[in-house]
Amino acid sequence: MANVASIDGAKAGPMTGEEKKVIFASSLGTVFEWYDFYLYGSLATYIGATYFTQYPEATRNIFTLLAFAAGFLVRPFGALVFGRLGDLVGRKYTFLVTILIMGMSTFLVGILPGAATIGIAAPIILIGLRLLQGLALGGEYGGAATYVAEHAPNGRRGYFTSWIQTTATLGLFLSLIVIILVQSIMGPVQFAAWGWRIPFLVSVVLLGISVWIRLKMNESPAFQRMKAEGKGSKAPLTEAFGQWRNAKIAIIALLGATMGQAVVWYGGQFYALFFLQNVLKVDLQSANIMVAISLLLGTPFFVIFGALSDRIGRKPIIMAGLLIAAVTYNPLFKAMTWTANPALAEAQASIRATVTADPADCKFQFNPTGTAKFTSSCDVATAFLTKNSVPYDVVAGPAGQPATVKVGNATVPSFDAAAAGDKAKAMTAAFEKSVNIALNDAGYPLKRGVAKVPDAKLDAFIAANPELALNAEAIRAGAKETMPAAKLVEGKLLTADEANGVTDMAVYTIANGGNFAMTADPARVNWVGTVAILFVLVLYVTMVYGPIAALLVELFPTRIRYTGMSLPYHIGNGWFGGLLPATAFAMSAAAGDIYYGLWYPIVFAAITLVIGLIFLPETKNRDIHAMD
């Protein structure tokens, strides 16, 4: 491994076997923790179907809020709990506890019965396990980074801790690979039924390996020396955040480093994946593979920039990453649209929708948990257009009048979903169908699926879909499938009341008669171009994230290091980063522009750049042992 100059010009020798062991053990365990954490988000659809869908909407909303809190908002509290413990009893034992909590919680999700088996106990237990995961992750990162940094020689701390920085990306990569493999082997039906549990169950093997390795590790020499000299803090939380000289460092670390690092990190990895899947409509498996390839190519640069920070400093690399990301995010994401879904890019360039609405009818659709409902006619229209990646302009209309959507020469009236009451479902279907037909005619890349229509509903279906120019006699004379009443109800082709007295019924398959879906044509997806853009975004992540652990460690003395560095890190990444997808979507919905949400990471990266340049100290030449 390459040598890096140490403090005062002394040359650092090759990494010793013990140093390699410290880095490997700390990094491996942290990779597994991130793997566990990401599984929940990647498999949320299947988890929701197993544990939440059986309950009333209000109950589901409560559970969703708790799951969201566990995933992001609770992480800083884990930093406080385990940071304090790590500064009082030691680094080794604390992050041994965190990995046990994380690993067992993840494994138990894999064997937890669904709500259909044990009722409401299932989602309650699931939320409890997720809360434990969030708390454990809040303590893991600070412990691993502190432990490695306190073993590192002066002048190589950026290089040593950069291996810890690879762990979140490798954890995401590992989770994607395991999910892709299991899906490929089992197929979508079996995976949805029970195969989604396998990635959770696999974690018990990873847990066993991690615990075995960590049990063989020794306590950090800096902590042992501090304890031997009686310099430990009796109240790490009070000392770290209750005394201004330390509290101001934590504030500078948050606003001048981790806040911007977090939005660039989430923007380059998680929002990029969200953008591919939900905005550009690339299929799930292809998007996962693209991101996995970019992560594989980009991960070595965490170590490269970490090592470089030992030579030129932590601050220049992090600030450069923030600046470049803020300047280039807009053109890069626009370029990604052209490579991943050129038909969508072409349509967006030529056709914009116009929403005419009472301004008081239009809300800011901030919905981080997915539970809020926006029911006004304006919100129904703008939410639908945003979800379908259609740019639009909002024009002020008469007060009290429902909104309308104009695409090309077609104008479609919207409706108030709350006022519609029982008719809301039917009105939603009619509105979406009319807008989709207009979008399809305007050149947007929509595909219409097949429709399964029972004989009793065929005439009504033909009347409701005049654009298909169907003939009832021809359809009835053609191919059909006879289904028993039970299967008709199970497939939601008839209600139980409609099937009363029916033994069986003919069902017709109508091509291009089903629901519309915006898609990216696989034949036109430019894989090389898309992966190249994703790689550049990951490269920005490595610039801001590679040196950050060394910077945070070097800001605080040994007696409060674990506590001091963990809180600003997890507030930045858990809150500012975690809120990025929901906030970006709401901003895009408000502006009618799929790229407008990028201003969220751009603005926070710019704010951190300015604060960091002015107030953040350079730390690469600090002797962390002399700080005590």
Key terms:
single chain; four-stranded mixed beta sheet; 628 residues; alpha+beta; 9 strands; 6% strand
Concise account of the structure shown:
The chain is α+β, with helices and mostly antiparallel strands. The protein contains 28 helices and nine strands.
Low-confidence residue ranges = 1-11
Strand order across the biggest sheet? 2-1-3-4
The largest pleated sheet is described as: 4 strands, mixed
Mean pLDDT: 88
Question: Could you characterize the architecture of this molecule?
Answer:
The radius of gyration is 27 Å and the shape is globular. The N terminus is likely disordered. The strands form three sheets. Strands 2-1-3-4 form a four-stranded mixed sheet, covered by helices on one side. It has a three-stranded antiparallel sheet with strand order 6-8-7. It has 28 helices and nine strands. Helices cover 66% and strands 6% of the residues. It is α+β, with helices and mostly antiparallel strands.
List the helices and strands and how they pair.
Elements: H1 17-42, H2 44-51, H3 57-73, H4 75-89, H5 91-111, H6 115-118, H7 121-151, H8 157-186, H9 188-193, H10 198-215, H11 221-228, H12 236-241, H13 244-279, H14 284-298, H15 300-312, H16 314-340, H17 342-350, E1 353-357, H18 377-387, E2 392-396, E3 404-407, E4 410-413, H19 417-420, H20 424-442, E5 446-448, E6 451-454, H21 458-464, H22 472-477, E7 481-484, H23 485-490, E8 504-510, E9 516-518, H24 527-545, H25 548-555, H26 561-577, H27 580-591, H28 599-615
Parallel strand pairs: 1-2
Antiparallel strand pairs: 1-3, 3-4, 5-9, 6-8, 7-8
Helix pairs in contact: 1-5, 1-7, 1-8, 1-10, 3-7, 4-5, 4-7, 4-26, 5-7, 5-10, 7-8, 7-26, 8-14, 8-15, 8-25, 13-14, 13-16, 13-24, 13-26, 13-28, 14-24, 15-16, 15-24, 16-17, 16-24, 16-28, 18-27, 25-26
